[in-house]
Amino acid sequence: MIAWVRRLAHGRDRSGPTASEAALVNAREARRQAEARQPAVSAVAAKLRRAREENHFRERIEELFKGAPS
Q1: If you write DSSP's letter for every residue of the chain in order, what string do you get?
Q2: What does pTM read for this prediction?
Q3: Residue 69 — left, alpha, or beta (φ > 0 → left; ψ -120 to 50 → alpha)?
Q4: Cα–Cα distances in Å, from 7 out to 3, 29, 44, 62?
Q5: What are phi and psi of 34, to 5 degrees?
Q6: In the Cβ-directed half-sphere of 41, how many Cα atoms lie within 13 Å?
Q7: Using an 8 Å Cβ cutoff, are 44 and 54 in contact?
Q8: For residue 29, what pLDDT band results from cuts at 50, 70 and 90?
Q9: Which of 6, 46, 61, 67 places its Cα 20 to 30 Å from the Cα of 52?
Q10: Buried b / exposed e across 15-43, counting CB within 10 Å, b at 16+?
């Protein structure tokens, strides 16, 4: 309690949020934003996965027509 009185007397009242509290607020906000983006990320990932599968099948079919071993 004495340290608090000294800070108050010298004009260094630090009753605002501490660095750890601010970091916690920032982390919670970042998580909320990431969760809000999750449906869009999942949709893009699914689209890329389908494109990769289509390319894979196209390549295998081309190899078969060229006579290359599979």
Answers
A1: -HHHHHHHHTT----S--HHHHHHHHHHHHHHHHHHHHHHHHHHHHHHHHHHHHHHHHHHHHHHHHT---
A2: 0.49
A3: beta
A4: 6, 31, 54, 77
A5: -65, -40
A6: 6
A7: no
A8: very high
A9: 67
A10: eeeeeeeeeeeeeeeeeeeeeeeeeeeee
